[in-house]
Amino acid sequence: MRRRVILIAVLAIAAPAHALDLPTRKAGLWELTMDFHNAHLPHQTMKQCTDAASDRLMNMNFAGSNEQACSKKDIAKTGDGYVIDSECTFGAMATTSHAVVTGSFDSAYTVDVNSTRKGGPPGMAPNGQSHMTIAAKWVGPCAAGQKAGDVTMANGMTMNVLDLQKARPQLPKR
Q1: CA–CA distance from 84 to each of 72, 123, 159 (Å)?
Q2: Which residue ranges in the chain fall short of pLDDT 70?
Q3: What pLDDT is attached to residue 88?
Q4: Are 81 and 73 in contact (CB under 8 A)?
Q5: What is the pLDDT of residue 128?
Q6: Where are the domains of the chain?
Q7: Are 134 and 32 spatial neighbours (Cβ–Cβ below 8 Å)?
Q8: Least packed by Cβ within 10 Å: which of 40, 52, 101, 151?
């Protein structure tokens, strides 16, 4: 269950674009800490290796599949960041989210997400609200042996979000 929530959060981080694209993050190693407010999950810290090409590709590919599942995905530039509002349906689960992104994609940024869920996947309580904060900071070049798209969890498990995107089935077009 916790692994599924973390994976969903990782995919959400990599899927913020639609009509207006968010800037590409600075190439290198990013540390992301997710705090699941009011949930029975501890905060999670992971590191993600990225470069400009993989960051653009992740945004473009994930946003394309999300367009099929999301009836609304609005991104608006604000004075100090972005506001993202979305309504998406994944199987029996419908989610409405409001995210506020502030900071710099060159050094550190924060994403504050409030979501309302109707329905839910097996093993997750149906319906509910969630509040998650993601704090991201650039920590330097990627470590030796890492490739762009690699995400390393605090427990040492590494997955590549580009490989995951290639392996998942495509959703039917609406």
Answers
A1: 10, 28, 26
A2: 1-20, 57-68, 124, 165, 168-174
A3: 87
A4: no
A5: 85
A6: 2-167
A7: yes
A8: 40
* 59, 75 Cβ separation under 8 angstroms: no
Q: What is the DSSP letter of 144?
A: T
Q: In the sheet where 44-50 sits, what is the strand order?
A: 70-78, 81-90, 93-104, 108-118, 128-140, 28-37, 44-50, 150-153, 158-160
CB 80 within 8 A of CB 100: no
Collapsed DSSP state (helix, strand, coil) of residue 62: helix
Q: What is the pLDDT of residue 102?
A: 95
Give the integer Cα–Cα distance in Å for 169 and 90: 13
Distance CA 66, CA 70 (A): 6
The C-alpha atoms of residue 47 and residue 115 are separated, in whole angstroms, by: 24
Asked if residue 87 lies in contact with residue 102, where contact means CB atoms within 8 angstroms, the answer is no
